[in-house]
Amino acid sequence: MARxxxxxxxxxxxxxxxxxxxxxxxxxIAHGLARVARWxxxxxxxxxxxxxxxxxxxxxxxxxxxxxxxxxxRRAALLHDAAEYVIGDMISPFKAALGxxxxxxxxxxxxxxHLRFGLLPVIAAELEVxxxxxxxxxxxxxxxxxxxxxLEEAEKFFGRPxxxxxxxxxRFHKLTPLSTNEAKALYIERFKAVS
Length: 195
Hints:
By secondary structure, this protein is mainly α. The chain has nine helices and two strands, in the order ββααααααααα.
């Protein structure tokens, strides 16, 4: 029988077919996400722009646009791509091509992650929509600042972000890819702040 678990640096063994919340650690998530490149690594800078940094950006955008977001909602935004610590960052068209089996696997893993960190297995539809909007806004910023998209291309694929001006918005105007160690440390620090 083929092995269906992944050994993590924490020593946990995560069953990929039936993931248990007990086998999920934030340090493993941060470590993995800091080493997964967004945009398949096709970004400017000395380092890849990691999924850990993307999640930090999405959480910041969500907090900026949803001023009354609770810590649980901010934690959900920070964890929105947490499954990628195991499965990597696949572009949306490839996920669609893989079909329902992939999506079902991703949903099972996300449910276990949510349970591990005190969230409902499936987040409320309204929150999911808000996080998806923040995700698209982050993708627009990454596309135009790091991935070589023109403003017109990014607007076509992700829409032009609205609501990113005003107090605190300066942090969205200059994205800089970080080293894996910096991204991991910032992810863990932010997770603790919203827990």
